[in-house]
Design goal:
elongated, ABC-type transporter activity, binds adenosine-5'-triphosphate, Transp-assoc_OB_typ2, ATP binding, five-stranded mixed barrel, 2 domains, OB fold (Dihydrolipoamide Acetyltransferase, E2P), about 350 residues, about 25% helix, 9 helices
């Protein structure tokens, strides 16, 4: 049985998965449209792989349902879902040539040779392995082996391609190259790709939409640009590189613009999540935090360390309230120097305090 190739969307409706007392997935509800590339992003243990495995059928769900258009698929066995899967370890058969590895899924599905052969050749061309197809996996580089795994996944013409950290075993340069390849392959297929990663750069560069998970639940869903600029919660902000967190009190507010008092000085920011009390936490990226004039709005700190990084310096400082802050500087400041650090107000994201 093959699933409709003309499907419009995949829907997770209240999908949960428990392992004993651990709620690995909590009530995941999400619609993914055909053609979309979605990244599941989050720290280790947040439930990314569990979500992927439930969609793939490798794990049963505890509650909820998974629909491909109007068809319920979470009750179908893995092989009947017909999804392409790519994992961190390529799991290729070492004694089979690239061509045979790629054709294996079609053979298992009983597709006749004359129908399978052109599909295998097309998959080989899509991943650009034309000149390597006669080789054994052991004769290929890590990147090439991962391409074989991708070709094997796409040869069956799947409605969904599921990838679980497929680039983690590759070196940094290959990872970058393969990102481009994966994006290109996804576009040429027009299917849905769901890509699990804990690497925010990978998610930002690959996905049309990012789903941030934490403790098994969705924290935020959005386009990469939205997530990067406007994380909805402090933990998402921290995950997206807003490494500085500054504790303050709300001093004045006008719409979503807010002034915080931090140890007697003022910091201007933008409210991201409804403030419930008068304490707040500001989150700022190190690259947006810079030394400012002593009479400008900002936070008084003492420099603890500074290092040269080519075009500028990267510094570490401590505020009067004990917050550790990272900043960028045009000048080499001496450890022990007093410096006021500030940022453009729209770069200072404000969340409710503890
Ligand atoms: P990582 O990035 O480390 O792979 P992840 O985000 O993919 O993490 P999952 O592997 O989905 O996270 O795990 C989610 C939670 O479910 C964790 O608390 C994990 O310990 C638990 N878990 C996962 N698989 C099992 C299992 N087979 N039995 C018991 N608990 C499990």
């Amino acid at each position: 049985m093959t699933l409709l190739s003309s499907f419009k969307s995949l829907r997770l409706e209240g999908v949960s998965r428990d392992f004993g007392v651990v709620n690995a997935l909590r009530d995941l509800t999400l619609e993914i449209k055909r053609g979309e590339f979605v990244a599941l992003l989050g720290p280790s243990g947040c439930g990314k792989s569990t979500a992927l495995n439930c969609i793939a059928g490798l794990l049963p769900t505890t509650r909820g349902q998974i629909m491909l258009d109007d068809r319920r698929i979470d009750t179908l066995p893995t092989e009947d879902r017909g999804f392409g899967m790519v994992f961190q370890n390529y799991a290729l058969f070492p004694h089979m040539t690239v061509r045979n590895n790629i054709g294996f899924g079609l053979k298992m599905r009983g597709i006749p040779k004359n129908e399978a052969a052109p599909r295998v050749e097309e998959a080989i061309r899509t991943v650009r392995l034309d000149t390597q197809a006669h080789k054994l996996p052991g004769q290929l580089s890590g990147g090439q082996q991962q391409r074989v795994a991708i070709a094997r996944a796409i040869a069956i013409d799947p409605p969904l391609v599921l990838m679980d950290e497929p680039l983690s075993n590759l070196d940094a340069k290959l990872r970058l190259e393969m990102r481009q390849e994966i994006r290109r392959i996804h576009q040429s297929l027009g299917c849905i790709t769901i890509y699990v990663t804990h690497d925010q750069d990978e998610a930002l560069s690959l996905a049309d939409r990012i789903v941030v998970l934490r403790d098994g639940a969705i924290r935020q869903v959005g386009a990469p640009e939205d997530l990067y600029a406007r994380p909805a919660h402090l933990d998402v902000a921290e995950f997206m590189g807003f490494r500085n967190r500054i504790n303050g009190r709300v001093q004045a507010r006008d719409g979503n613009r807010v002034q915080l008092t931090v140890a007697g000085t003022t910091l201007d920011g933008v409210v991201q999540e409804a403030l419930t009390g008068d304490t707040a936490i500001a989150a700022v990226r190190p690259d947006d935090m810079v030394p400012v004039a002593p009479d400008a709005h900002g936070i008084d700190t003492v420099v603890e360390a500074i290092e040269y990084r080519g075009r500028d310096f990267f510094g570490q400082a401590r505020s009067k309230t004990g917050d550790e802050l990272f900043f960028r500087s045009e000048q080499r400041l001496a450890p022990g120097a007093a410096v006021r650090l500030g940022a453009e107000p729209h770069r200072v994201l404000v969340y409710p305090g503890a």
